[in-house]
Amino acid sequence: ASTDIDWRVEQGYGALVAAHAAGLPAALATPVSGIDTSGKRLRIATPRGTVTANAAIVTVSTNVLASGALALPGHDAILHAASELPLGL
């Protein structure tokens, strides 16, 4: 249920993610050009080479999500949700 309140993280969302991911392998500032989900493990194509993983968190701006530029499962629901997200001030 919506509270009609935009909650902010005082230290920033980057600090929130870093705290939750402490100790996990991460490749920051690594653009992903494709994710192959056909095998048991993900094959993630990047300029640094292919990374294999059981799971991945890929971040993009809400503008990119709302633009429809990405082919994602549940595409319509994602487009709707992204188009309703307010951008930061």
Report the helical percentage.
25-40%
Give the rounded overall mean pLDDT: 82
Distance between the termini: 23 Å
The main β sheet shows up as: 3 strands, antiparallel
Q: What strand line-up does the widest sheet have?
A: 1-2-3
Into which percentage range does the β-strand content fall?
5-15%
Oligomer: single chain
Structural class designation: alpha+beta
Number of helices: 3
H-E order: HEEEHH
Q: Over all CA atoms, what is the radius of gyration?
A: 15 Å
Stretches where pLDDT falls below 50 for ≥5 residues? none
The total of beta strands comes to 3
Rough shape?
globular
Please explain how this structure is put together.
The chain has helices at 13-20, 62-67, 75-83, and strands spanning 34-36, 42-46, 49-53. The protein is of the alpha+beta class.
